[in-house]
Amino acid sequence: MDLAPNAKTYATVLDACASVGAIETGQHIHSLINPSMLKGDAVIGTAMINLYARSGMIDLAKRLFDSVVTRDPVAWSSMIAAFAQNGHSCDALDLFREMTDEKEISPDAITFLGVLAACSHGGLIDHGIKQFVSMIQEFEIKPAREHFGCVIDLLARTGRISDAIELLYAMPCVANEVVWTSVMNACRIHGDMEQGMVAAEEVMMREPENPEAYIAMAGFLVQGRLHELTLLTFTVKPEQPDT
User: Fold this and answer.
1) Tens-digit pLDDT string for the chain (243 aa)
2) Where are the domains of the chain?
3) C-alpha distances out from residue 162 to 1, 152, 199, Å
4) Predicted TM-score of the model (pTM)
């Protein structure tokens, strides 16, 4: 019996190739797909976008996205996430605006993950907060831990460590080691010793075997000791020689 692979089969194999980084195998599968099937099926198109985006071939991923005639929210979200993951924050946000201009398609929780990630990687704090509020108020999407994590990472990356930690404690879901690690790393970059020690302790509580947390804690302790010595140098007056 001769069975030809259908769209679902192709998409499953392409997703498997993307997950293990088998770009050459994925390209071979791509060559076997009928062009009309690729253009008319958003499932295959999305799988191809993910494959090339994970391999850093963002221009090819965008060409494939443009060639798909029927684009569902998953295809839009995948391309937005692809731009965000490859450091093209402005392109991700431009595509999101294009998506929302099409009245038939509404962004979902996955779409906003890509948007918030783009804002975080691009340091676009005002725009990120605006999109987070819009997600909740305009689109009535309940934020998950991953959404809060993106906003916390955005605040921490831009030096607003106190705001990041305040949101971290206020969010309705329990923070995991990933969120605390992003705050800890931001504290290292911005030289925030006190809050960095708090973040490092939280990471160690959740991942006791994580060496990065112990290295960061040691760095914060050294930074604190140097700060104390600097203050001591400026506050202790040298003795005057006897005349």
Assistant:
1) 456 777 788 888 888 988 888 888 988 888 888 777 666 677 888 888 888 888 889 998 999 888 877 788 888 999 999 999 999 999 999 999 999 888 778 899 999 999 999 999 999 999 999 999 999 999 999 999 999 999 999 999 999 999 999 999 999 988 899 999 999 999 999 988 889 889 999 999 998 888 888 888 888 888 756 544 454 454 544 555 555
2) 1-71
3) 65, 10, 11
4) 0.80
**Contact present, 37 and 7 (Cβ < 8 Å):** yes
95 in Cβ contact with 103 (< 8 Å) = no
